Amino acid sequence: MLLHRSTGAVPCFFPADASRLAMRFLCITPNTSIDRTMVVPGFLAGGVWRAQSGSIACGGKGVNVARALKRLGQQPVCSGLLAGHTGKLAAEVANAEGLEAAWTWASGETRTCVIVVGERGATTVLNEPGPPAAADDWSRLVQDVGRLARSAGGACISGSLPPGYPENGLKALIRAASMNGRRPVWVDTSGAALIDAVAAAPYGIKINADEAATLLGWRVQSVHDAIRAAREIRRRGPERVAITLAADGAVVATGQGDWHARPPGVRVVSAVASGDCFLAGLMAGLAERVSPAEALRLATACGAANAMSRDAGDFEPRRLTSIIVNVSVRLMTG
């Protein structure tokens, strides 16, 4: 993806030269799933409901990042644990979708997640925990990621970790994906895994406000709260920290400065995977060597564009042009 700047003060980003060599990214989903999405107008808990429409897809946050990177003209490769009949179905639908993948096969049965889209974008998500990760399965995943990382310019590790993953397992996965610090790796996770990720000091941490609040033990309810949180997390080791704030946009803290981006208002169909599309935009922008502020602008536009679509990570790249010129970005100095 070539990032073009408009002749005005606000840059404009869109895929341009299809013949241009795309960046290869490794998108790791340790706890991959089959996602079954159903559109159910008026949905409320309880009762019997009939879906208006439904679809299945290979799921998990890293897979969503891969979809968005592909939309942005990049070359993503999916990696992660798959198991059993559900895992075979996940691999089949990912292949049918045109996603390049190199899966690590494990024992058990890949989880199923149910996404119910109701009125005005109100979305209910039911996530199974996934099969426990045996030590030998995790070891093979780390080895496979280390091999795949040799041909990648960067990577992300996204989503929950399977139950029972080994102690220091995430640290080993980050080390393998980064080739011992020689490749940028972003981590997007939560809970105990997020504590482990921050301690491992990867290139980047991307989380939402609730996850930041849980990690730090204080409320993150405003842009200034988020900037404070991002700076504190960065102080603990990661080079860059991004925190998404839903309709209030996102912040990023870096060694070059700290910024806040706010998207324009959009008609929300489903916000599922908007954070993953945000991360894809951030990775793609930084890979193009634009400033952190402009990468944040692209990332924020990607998240907003995804919210206008029913399917996770499936947004229209040309829509970014109309959104991105209305994303405001400001340097945070306080």
From TrEMBL:
Q: Which UniProt keywords apply?
A: ATP-binding, Kinase, Nucleotide-binding, Transferase
Recorded GO CC terms: cytosol
| UniProt GO molecular function | ATP binding; phosphofructokinase activity
The answer to keyword Kinase applying to this record is: yes
Instruction: Show where the Carbohydrate kinase PfkB domain sits.
Output: 27-314
Pfam families to which the protein is assigned, alphabetical: PfkB
Q: Which residues form a coiled coil?
A: none
Q: Which SUPFAM superfamilies match?
A: Ribokinase-like (SSF53613)
Q: Does the keyword 4Fe-4S apply?
A: no
NCBIfam families membership: 1-PFK
Family from the record: Belongs to the carbohydrate kinase PfkB family.
Q: What is this protein called?
A: Phosphofructokinase
Please name the source species: Candidatus Defluviicoccus seviourii
